[in-house]
């Protein structure tokens, strides 16, 4: 089918065939090409979810770290700056 989109050819190495076989357990009626598309979509979703969880974990760690230092600096930033030369 003609298309303007880039195409990618994949050789059915043992790893690729194993992935197709696993995908066929979930999407039994689909062709190998469609199974590969499902795997790519699932992989993208998984990577995106991992990145989201990593970001949430970083934010939680930053919150824990900042909570340790709450109340340590009681002066306002403006009062500290008053003594700074311009």
Descriptive key words:
86 residues; mainly alpha; elongated
Short description:
This protein is mainly α and 86 residues long.
Describe it for me?
With 86 residues, this protein is mostly helical. It has a domain of 57 residues. 64% of the residues lie in helices and 0% in strands. The protein is built from 3 helices and no strands. Helix 1 packs across helix 2. The termini are far apart.
Shape: elongated
Biggest sheet statistics: none
Order of helices and strands: HHH
Structural class, from secondary structure content?
mainly alpha
Count of alpha/pi helices: 3
| Radius of gyration computed on alpha carbons | 26 Å
In total, the number of strands is 0
Distance between the termini: 69 Å
Assign a percent range to the helix content.
55-70%
Runs in which pLDDT lies below 50 for 5 or more consecutive residues are none
Summarize the helices and strands and which ones pair or pack.
Elements: H1 14-26, H2 32-68, H3 77-81
């Amino acid at each position: 089918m003609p298309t303007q989109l880039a195409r990618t050819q994949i050789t059915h190495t043992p790893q690729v065939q194993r992935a197709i076989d696993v995908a066929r357990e979930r999407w039994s009626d689909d062709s190998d090409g469609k199974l590969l598309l499902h795997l790519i979509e699932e992989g993208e979703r998984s990577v995106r979810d991992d990145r989201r969880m990593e970001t949430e974990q970083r934010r939680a760690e930053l919150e824990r770290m900042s909570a340790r230092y709450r109340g340590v600096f009681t002066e306002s930033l403006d009062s500290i700056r008053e003594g700074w030369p311009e």
